[in-house]
């Protein structure tokens, strides 16, 4: 016991106590407590019961079977059937203020493992491993997992599920013996298995409970596991799923895992989100863009689909500028052979039949109107009905000799083929160098079924080549912003966000559905990276109809845009777009820098979402009525995060047009406003108004003294 040392890493609120001897073990990860490390050691060491191994077995950062850890190992592999149960011993430790890097060796197996562990000032932990083959012969790596411990009181989970047009759905479940596991084999981050989860104490909620949130930053196949060991200890593990034979390290070669990000809060889910949001803003997002106000988009997709006529598109741009739009984007349908979703992908040449005068007149028109110009691409994809496929059928990502199902009539290009990679870079570079393009939407509309290169499994490398392609484009065109889209929210994770600027959260622009999708996304991402558009009143993906007020307020709480054909809209709708664009511009500095609060409600039919400025001088709150209220009166709106000592002026900024007609009368504060202390707003609150299902209201809090 005594030849071990304890070190601690501390954030603002979080503490990691790590014991280092032959191996590293996290003894405590939770709320920061000051005190004597030796006392901590005495307090944290475990008893050893009868009926199992005679000594204590540690849950290290890479569980090892050879040390008697009967859990999912951190490293699994072999060298021609040998060296399959490595046991690593620490050889070197480098400690800095906020991180430790641990080098461990297994001299027999000829392997070195480097483990990085960091806790930053936003209370976000990140960890990853690098495994190196140090011996002659090929070391086949089956698994390399990141493992973090959870305390025994973490006994509930919030996990994610979803599908196309239904992303970021959350579900609660107890964490029992047997644990939880999710596997994603779709070759992209996926709609179905967003790579994150939250573990917490019984009944943890938005405001209460200890929670430990995890996000695995990888845009391909992954496995997440939360396991309860037979002795009651528990841990979270995240790893890339390596397909058979795909990681084979020659002597001297290494493989590095993606980063696993994690954060603890003892103030429930809101506290956890505050950590992740600050971390994303300060550390993940490309730094050169964080201060720029995010321009309001007009995206042509749901307005005209594949029906492109330059004159008409220019009239759309004119109308957009009149409404206050700041960036005009031509979506799918502009390139050769692309008249529907069955052909053309891969032929990244302007369709001269549709654009006989080229793209310049449109870009210039858009720029003259004071807007930026953006263009859609789906670089990794190919239709068999394309010149590219006819010339290079061998560029397909496929296992030769087998058929594979299409997705949206298309196939994936093998980015590991250098010629294909260079062709795609050249095409993107051509457009970005030729036209004044400020933004591209980088789409990926199908899943990966046969990720092979030269016959061998190559899913991991395909994802890395995708990162390299984006990086290469960014390096040459650092000012161009990129939106990551994959049929909506199929590629949303921290690793993509290091090289892109926003996400298309969903192809579903139905405001009611968006309320849930955006909420699910808000646990890990701040609002400014979430593309959120006002769609047509008759929603294309659900066929529901919603008022402009409900659509406007729902889109307000992200990076806002409009996605329809403004030319065809009626005057009342246009006035609505203009109104919400103005509102967004006014509130944008607050929305895109403040603290998000998901406010608990007494009735599930409501969803309340707030953003409070960092200096607590203002806040904006959206009350969304998702369904019929359960009772005729709905309790109180209580707003956390304001300065308890300060006085705030409360005013309604926006409400449904029928607001006063649906009841005898509404709460007086919603008519004439009122002044209240921050403490009152948090502790007692304001009587909830009565709203129809599928409508919303916006309330502003401004500090007056
Ligand atoms: C995907 C995207 C949409 C749109 C279409 C174009 O579905 O998610 O927003 O760009 O592709 O084909």
From TrEMBL:
Keywords of the record: Glycosidase, Hydrolase
Name of the featured protein: Alpha-galactosidase
Family: Belongs to the glycosyl hydrolase.
Organism (species): Vibrio hyugaensis
InterPro entries the record matches: Aldolase_TIM, Alpga-gal_N_sf, Alpha-glycosidase_related, GH, Glyco_hydro_27/36_CS, Glyco_hydro_36, Glyco_hydro_36_C, Glyco_hydro_36_N
The organism's place on the tree of life at top rank: Bacteria
Glycosyl hydrolase family 36 C-terminal domain ranges (all copies): 610-689
Catalytic activity line of the entry: Hydrolysis of terminal, non-reducing alpha-D-galactose residues in alpha-D-galactosides, including galactose oligosaccharides, galactomannans and galactolipids
Residue ranges of domain Glycosyl hydrolase family 36 N-terminal in the record: 24-238
E.C. number: 3.2.1.22
């Amino acid at each position: 016991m005594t030849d071990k040392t304890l070190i601690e890493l501390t954030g603002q609120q979080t503490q990691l106590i790590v014991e280092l001897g032959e191996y590293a073990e996290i003894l405590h990860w939770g709320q920061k407590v000051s005190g004597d490390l030796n006392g901590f050691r005495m307090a944290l060491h475990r008893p050893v019961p009868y009926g199992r191994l005679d000594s204590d077995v540690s849950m290290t950062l890479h569980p090892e079977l050879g040390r008697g850890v009967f859990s999912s190992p951190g490293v699994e592999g072999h060298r021609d059937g040998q060296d399959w149960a490595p046991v690593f011993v620490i050889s070197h430790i480098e400690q800095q203020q906020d991180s430790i890097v641990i080098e461990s060796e297994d001299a027999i197996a000829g392997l070195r493992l480097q483990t990085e562990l960091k806790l930053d000032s936003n209370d976000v932990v990140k960890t990853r491993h690098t495994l190196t083959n140090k011996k002659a012969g090929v070391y086949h790596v089956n698994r390399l997992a990141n493992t973090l411990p959870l305390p025994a009181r973490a006994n509930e989970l919030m996990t994610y599920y979803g599908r196309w047009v239904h992303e970021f759905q959350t579900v609660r479940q107890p964490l029992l013996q047997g644990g939880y596991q999710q596997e994603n084999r779709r070759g992209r981050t996926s709609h179905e298995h967003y790579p994150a989860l939250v573990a917490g104490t019984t009944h943890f909620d938005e405001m209460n409970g200890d929670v430990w949130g995890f996000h695995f930053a990888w845009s391909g196949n992954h496995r997440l596991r939360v396991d309860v060991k037979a002795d009651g200890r528990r841990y979270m593990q995240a790893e890339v799923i390596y397909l058979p034979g795909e990681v084979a390290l020659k002597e001297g070669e290494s493989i590095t895992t993606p980063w696993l990000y994690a954060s603890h809060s003892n103030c429930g889910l809101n506290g956890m989100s505050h950590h992740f949001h600050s971390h994303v803003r300060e550390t993940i997002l490309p730094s050169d863009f964080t201060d720029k106000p995010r321009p309001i988009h007009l995206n042509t997709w749901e307005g005209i689909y594949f029906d492109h006529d330059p004159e008409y598109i220019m009239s759309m741009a004119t109308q957009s500028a009149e409404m206050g739009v700041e960036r005009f984007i031509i979506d799918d349908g502009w390139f050769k052979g692309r008249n529907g979703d069955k052909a053309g992908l891969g032929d990244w040449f302007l369709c001269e039949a549709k654009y006989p005068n080229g793209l310049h007149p449109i870009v210039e028109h858009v720029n003259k109107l004071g807007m930026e110009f953006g263009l859609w691409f789906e670089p990794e994809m190919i239709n068999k009905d394309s010149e590219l496929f006819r010339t290079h059928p061998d560029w397909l990502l496929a296992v030769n000799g087998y058929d594979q199902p299409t997705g949206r009539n298309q196939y994936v290009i093998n980015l590991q083929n250098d010629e294909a990679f260079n062709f795609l870079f050249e095409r993107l570079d051509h457009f970005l160098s030729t036209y004044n393009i400020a933004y591209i939407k980088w789409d990926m509309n199908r899943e990966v079924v046969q990720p092979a290169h030269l016959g061998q499994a190559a899913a991991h490398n395909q994802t890395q080549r995708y990162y390299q392609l984006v990086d290469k484009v960014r390096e040459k065109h650092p000012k161009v912003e990129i939106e990551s889209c994959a049929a909506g929210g199929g590629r949303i994770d921290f690793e993509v966000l290091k090289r892109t600027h926003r996400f298309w959260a969903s192809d579903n622009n139905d405001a009611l559905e968006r309320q849930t999708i955006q909420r699910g996304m808000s646990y890990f991402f701040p609002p400014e990276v979430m593309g959120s558009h006002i769609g047509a009143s008759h929603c294309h993906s659900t066929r529901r109809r919603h008022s402009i007020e409900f659509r406007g307020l729902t889109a307000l709480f992200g990076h806002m845009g409009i996605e329809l054909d403004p030319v065809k809209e009626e005057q009342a709708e246009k006035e609505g777009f203009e109104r919400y664009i103005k509102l967004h511009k006014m509130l944008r500095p607050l929305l895109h820098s403040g603290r998000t609060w998901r406010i608990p409600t007494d009735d599930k039919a409501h969803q309340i979402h707030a953003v409070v400025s960092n200096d607590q001088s203002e806040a904006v709150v959206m009350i969304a009525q998702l369904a019929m209220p359960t009772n005729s009166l709905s309790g109180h709106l209580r707003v956390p995060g304001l300065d308890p000592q300060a006085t705030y002026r409360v005013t309604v900024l926006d409400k449904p047009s029928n607001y006063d007609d649906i009841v005898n009368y509404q709460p007086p504060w919603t008519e004439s406003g009122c002044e209240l202390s921050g403490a009152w707003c948090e502790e007692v609150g304001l009587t909830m108004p009565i709203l129809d299902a599928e409508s919303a209201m916006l309330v502003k809090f401004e500090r007056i003294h």
